[in-house]
Amino acid sequence: MRLSRKRLSNALAVFGLVLALSLSYGPRLLSGKTLLVKVTDVRNTNGTIHVLIYDRATAFENASQTGITNYITRGAEVGDMTFRFRHLLPGRYAVFVHHDENANNSFDSTASSFEGYGYSRNVGQLTTPSFEAAAISIPEDPSPEPIAMVYPE
Fold this sequence. Notes:
By secondary structure, the protein is of the alpha+beta class. It contains 3 helices and 8 strands; from the N terminus they run αββαββββαββ. The model has no long low-confidence stretch (mean pLDDT 84).
């Protein structure tokens, strides 16, 4: 199959543009930003700690499982735990932390069983905060974002 000069020229121009954009922006997009989340005041080693990151208000405010940008789950440790999220694009994120003490992968919030939780910027002690209230930007140097666990009694 023979390409006309015009088609060959267009194909080379597109290839050159893609190559230039990849070399210019690709490393930054691939490396992304790192967000450190420091969960404090974990009261026991029962179950797991779930840290969920959202980049959209509707997903965060509706606790959407499909709208999560990134998450990490780890066995609970008493005291402080640090979670590292890599390769995040620059932007604003809201973080929700849940201590799933009975390890049923569900946030239990009934009168008989209310598990620990926390939000970025330590907002939402009594009610679920808005995305704007909880939103943080990823700092240039990855200093930890502290989130204190709340355990309603």
